[in-house]
Amino acid sequence: MQRWNQPFPPYRVIDNIYYVGTNEIAQFLITTPAGHILLDTGFEASVPRLRDNFSALGFRYRDIKLILTSHAHIDHVQAHALVRRQTGATVVASEADAVFVEQGGKGETVYDGVFDWARCPVDRKVADGELVTLGGVTLTAHLTPGHTRGATTWTMPVTDHGRSLAVVFFPSANINPGVHLLGNARYPEIVHDFERSFATWKHLPCDVFLADHGEFYGMKAKHRLARSGASANPFIDGDGYRRYIADAERRFRAQLENER
Ligand SMILES: [Zn+2]
């Protein structure tokens, strides 16, 4: 995973959303008048750079008030405990993934016994549709399990040139290598969960497509476009979102067919 952990210059994505992640693993900073929201913390080894990214953008790392979670895999949550300790922020995760965050990866359906991380208390466990608000900014948690039991899609509105736009922070719909959809003893309801999640994803309004891995939404190409002075914000890509979801669902159904 070292190749996912290379430096990347931090930048403003849209409105009050900033990219503070690595070359592949995204962390998003959402600023509010009452402090910051950080979506995912990433690898512990990246935290010094995460702090530098805050400074480079002119924000204070210690002003992080909320740490949100996309899903409980090491590349997104390993540094939760460290960032919580350094900032005193409230850690937020879905009930299902909170179990794994709190147990440092123990019992997780894909990587139990492969990857573990510092256990981190989850201060607030959110249910489907629950709102999380700070400083007038509200995010909605949509439970979209499958990749993990508690994978969460976060949504929020932003304003761009006077227009209100719907932002989707997509977690993952990947079926990791070696994971079976049928007869999966560690996650017997995986097919049911994916089915429900695809139904949710297909109905979510999306104007701005973001995700916890840059490759899911073409981060680097869009960043290049933005830097080259594109007139429209390249991250406004609802069609890209819908295409991505359709492709992911096709991959899911193909694997299901193969296993039958
Ligand atoms: Zn993952």
The counted number of beta strands is 12
| Strand percent estimate | 15-25%
Gyration radius over CA: 17 Å
Overall, the morphology is globular
Name the hetero compounds present. Answer: zinc ion
Order of strands, main sheet, comes to 1-2-3-4-5-6-7
| Mean pLDDT level | 96
Number of helices: 7
How do the SSEs run, as a string of H and E? EEEEHEHHEHEEEEEHEHH
Largest sheet: 7 strands, mixed
Distance between the termini: 32 Å
Oligomer: single chain
Q: Could you estimate the helical fraction of the residues in percent?
A: 25-40%
Low-confidence parts lasting 5 or more residues at pLDDT below 50?
Answer: none
Which structural category fits the helices and strands?
Answer: alpha/beta
Description:
The chain has 260 residues and is an alpha/beta fold. 29% of the residues lie in helices and 24% in strands. It has 7 helices and 12 strands. The protein has a 7-stranded mixed beta sheet with strand order 1-2-3-4-5-6-7. Strands 8-9-10-11-12 form a 5-stranded mixed beta sheet. The radius of gyration is 17 Å and the shape is globular. The model has no long low-confidence stretch (mean pLDDT 96). The structure holds zinc ion (ZN). The site of zinc ion (ZN) has 4 residues, from loops. Zinc ion binds next to loops.
